[in-house]
């Protein structure tokens, strides 16, 4: 069996992306080519636990908190993980052992655009490095299952691991270039001026309010409510996002809200007024791919800032809990957001406080939740649920038998646990 090839690069450098264009590795042996092709076919259909591990690696760590806490950026990162994995595997089925060109398709372009619009820089691409470590470890597992021949395995690992690391290097270089281009393009638009002005206001920079109002076309005095409108779909429909921003403004009776393009699939809003969450929740059903988080209301510039922070809190809670809810207002989720900052601890709290009630029929849990929300007034709770009072009492009796301790002894704890289940969408 021949030794591992030298894998020397041949060819000129590509000025656009900084990688060698029109070049190929010195090819591996025919046997190793076939082994690479077999392994790449397996990588095209990775088990779900591989993908979960890849996502956790790329979204964990303090240096990536701005990505992991933003549901749009987190969803884009997960799509990029899958895109890169499938791109590399497909290339190695077609040309096993050849150098894989960088992945500069639609998904990386969208990631670059969103990073720039969030004010993040190339350091966010460190997530690609974290994913590389997981990919190599999983690939080594595949290689070990393909051959027991030491020489074959040595050549296989040498070629393929170099291929993975070079592919990641080249892709990072290409996306870095894309980020630079996006930054240049964004700097020329009116949205960039709005985004920059809003950033200065949110971070307390000394910009004169009159100047900021002129640049934004929005009055900074008075009472404000912030909202975030977004979609986690791979190809978010701009028209759907625009329709929802109109719905939010209409529900607050504000004809001239401030809207900022925070990313391709994210809009930041401020309104003079407060959206009607009941009517807005009903209207959102017509736009199932779009979600809305609404902040608290506050006065003047301090309220402008505080409301946006509260809207972010509601948005991040929906993402953290993988909630199916389309609309969350800070007023209704503030306690749940605090209680679920540690999801694992929150799950333990729910199990301890609710006992078997956590697994009861949804109408039993909902009866107890609404009863507590109605300050334990059975008549008011029955009216809210549109059921007869006796029906409510029967359901409450069932709930009481399932609780570890009487409801009267832990009304706040049971109510909080039931609200957590509601926002988690537990059926």
UniProtKB/TrEMBL annotation:
InterPro entries per UniProt: CdaR-like_regulators, CdaR_GGDEF, Homeodomain-like_sf, PucR_C-HTH_dom, PucR_C-HTH_sf
UniProt-listed Pfam families: GGDEF_2, HTH_30
UniProt domain CdaR GGDEF-like: residue ranges: 211-317
Domain PucR C-terminal helix-turn-helix: 366-418
Family: Belongs to the CdaR family.
Protein name: PucR family transcriptional regulator
Native organism: Streptomyces broussonetiae
